[in-house]
Amino acid sequence: MEPEKKRELLAEQLATSKLATIDVTDAVLDxxxxxxxxxxxxxxxxxxxxxxxxxxxxxxxxxxxxxxMEWQADDAAVVVSSGEFAKEQIALLTTDLQQxxxxxxxxxxxxxxxxxxxxxxxxxxxLFPDDVVADVDNPLRMLIIGRKVTIAGFDxxxxxxYLAEVWPVGYIPDVQPIVLxxxxxxxxxxxxYESEFEDEFSERILQTDQIKDTRISTAYMTKEQGQHYFAExxxxxxxxxxxxxx
Length: 246
Fold this sequence. Notes:
- The protein is α+β, with helices and mostly antiparallel strands.
- It folds into two domains: 3-111, no CATH class; 120-238, no CATH class.
- The protein is 37% helix and 27% strand.
- The protein is built from seven helices and ten strands.
- It has helices at residues 3-16, 26-37, 39-50, 97-111, 130-133, 196-212, 223-238; strands spanning 55-60, 63-72, 75-84, 90-96, 120-123, 141-149, 158-166, 178-180, 185-190, 216-217.
- Strands 5, 6, 7, 8, 9 and 10 form a six-stranded mixed sheet that branches. Strands 1-2-3-4 form a four-stranded antiparallel sheet.
- Helix 2 (26-37) packs across helix 4.
- The longest helix has 17 residues, at 196-212.
- The relative contact order is 0.14.
């Protein structure tokens, strides 16, 4: 998809989102486009939020973007500003953490690619509960076995990016798959099988369905949303459903 089309699609997603109340201005779309076309910046901002940092600085093509976060417990007042390097910053957006996550989630849905089945990835240990990674000394590697999973009966605004098994262990009877998000993936060790059919399926079916339903990744849940969502999933696990890995 051409960059102009992605920008237009992002504008449509924000305008029709069930949760977004952000005014869709050119400045907001510039910010979203920067994050979408520079995935490392989206990841940097995501990790800074997860670490409860007060500031995230990003520089792209001599333009500096600053996201200031004033934390109150697990929520934050957010101010996004930008400007040319060494010049005065201009505030683009004043919002809260939920709305920032909504913007980031829609950027992720429009711009991110979907990895093939069978891909092996290295996961970021810091984004997993301690009990999951306590005995893992080596890099935490996982094999992707499912993609863009929606779970009937739950909040229809979110989608699980990937289901995975620990590599090289693979499937273990009575042990359910682990939930992965794009942001828990640190690097791709090996891509799964690719073909024109797989590419079309990933882009035109998996990703298109997510965008059409204005769903965003579970990565962009606030803590309150996540507690509610994963509590429900944990109940499913008791009945033989999906294991909560993050």
